[in-house]
Write a structure and sequence with these properties.
By secondary structure, this protein is α/β, with parallel strands linked by helices. It has helices at 22-32, 78-84, 98-106, 116-121; strands at residues 10-13, 37-40, 45-47, 50-53, 64-67, 88-91, 110-113. 26% of the residues lie in helices and 22% in strands. Helix 1 (22-32) links the parallel strand 1 and strand 2. The longest helix has 11 residues, at 22-32.
């Protein structure tokens, strides 16, 4: 019996070129697991052959947004994330934000308070 694995196009918000940052580790692990990624960060760069964008592009086909931006900096992303119409948004540790979570749920977007690295590691991504 084979398990069909659906690869999810993921937008990493808070992407960084610093290997010590969890957003960097998540981008690397997502690619290792075969997921397509888009990267949005404060400084332009290229990691893993992918560009870290600094402007909020209208990416097509985003299934999952994984957040690595603290709650105080998230309001700038509220309308943008909703406009992408992702299936879900993952609030990684330290990014939890009830106001943003409620806005997403009101717009039919699934909210998951979890760690992207852990979800990938246990096969629950």
């Amino acid at each position: 019996m084979y398990k069909l694995i659906y690869m999810k196009k993921t937008l990493v918000i808070g992407a960084s070129n610093n290997p010590e940052r969890y957003s960097y580790k998540a981008a690397e692990k997502l690619l290792n697991y075969g997921h397509e990624i888009e990267l949005l960060g404060l400084r332009p760069d290229v990691i893993f052959g992918r560009t870290i964008d600094t402007d909020k592009k209208a990416y097509e086909g985003i299934d999952t947004v994984t957040l690595y931006v603290g709650p105080k900096n998230q309001p700038d992303y509220y309308n943008y994330v909703v406009s992408l119409k992702p299936v879900r948004v993952i609030f990684n540790p330290g990014t939890e934000n009830p106001e943003f979570e409620q806005l997403l749920e009101k717009n039919g977007i699934q909210v998951e308070v979890a760690c992207t690295l852990v979800l990938l590691g246990i096969g629950q991504y």
